[in-house]
Specification:
Length: 245
């Protein structure tokens, strides 16, 4: 039985047939990982194989795999294939806090350097924001504590939720504070990784080669819309997460 027939043959999952084809493929992949058919590190079928299996266009399969890669469910290795990502431990109880408030609560001086504030047609960003077309808004900001870089923020923003985002001065108010002030967050999704930064991030965080970062990936919703997708890079030697339940 092929994948398309397998999905259609499961009565309990009949509602998924009304989903867009790329979402059906995403759920098929996630289900195979969840039931242990595909384990962390396993190579999944190629795009060409999935095209044949589902009877859809290649761009449909490509979108499904691209979104799963953005969501860290899969990893794609150029020239090798697509693999199930290693398991990562997640914390469901993280509080969304403003980095400026955290720094000032310690009695320290906060600062910000805006590197990018512009429009973007990045396909992975549009997928993360669940938008069919762009542009979306993009900002890159380095946050400092006592003039020392403590966080590199790489954020994409849904222009339908925050249409005046690009007109803000984020040296005076953080994006987090601005967005929460305008529209309370209804839901958030987090993932946390220990990861080495690329040369660009490492340079702005003034890190040594080989030094790891604590990377927090987060999406937030306002109503039914994904409002923002952000990667927050922190030098592991200068930052730690705390929380309580």
């Amino acid at each position: 039985m092929n994948a398309r027939a397998e999905i259609a043959a499961q009565p309990a999952e009949a509602p998924r047939r009304t989903l867009p084809a790329y979402e059906q493929i995403k759920r098929y992949v996630v289900d195979r990982i969840a039931d242990g058919t595909w384990k962390p590190g396993d190579m999944i079928p190629s795009e060409a194989e999935l095209v044949k299996e589902f009877g859809v266009a290649r761009m449909t399969v490509s979108r499904a795999l691209r979104e799963l890669t953005t969501e860290r469910v899969l990893t794609r290795v150029q020239g090798s294939g697509t693999f199930v990502a290693p398991r990562h431990y997640e914390s469901p109880v993280l509080e969304i806090r403003n980095i400026a408030d955290e720094i000032m609560s310690r009695g320290h001086r906060y600062g910000a350097r805006v590197l990018t504030l512009d429009r973007s047609d990045d396909p992975e960003a549009m997928a993360a924001l669940d938008l069919a077309k762009g542009p979306v808004f993009h900002s890159r900001i380095v946050h400092t504590e006592e003039d020392e870089p403590i966080q590199y923020e790489d954020r994409f923003v849904n222009p339908h939720v925050f249409p005046e985002y690009l007109q803000q001065d984020f040296t005076l108010e953080t994006p987090n504070h601005y967005m929460v002030r305008l529209a309370p967050i209804q839901r958030a999704e987090f993932r946390i990784y220990a990861q080495k930064p690329d040369a660009h991030v490492r340079r702005y965080l003034e890190m040594e080669i080989g030094e790891p970062c604590l990377l927090v990936w987060r999406r937030t919703w306002v109503g039914d819309l994904v409002a923002t997708s952000v990667q927050l890079w922190h030098p592991a030697s200068r930052f730690h997460l705390t929380g309580s339940v």
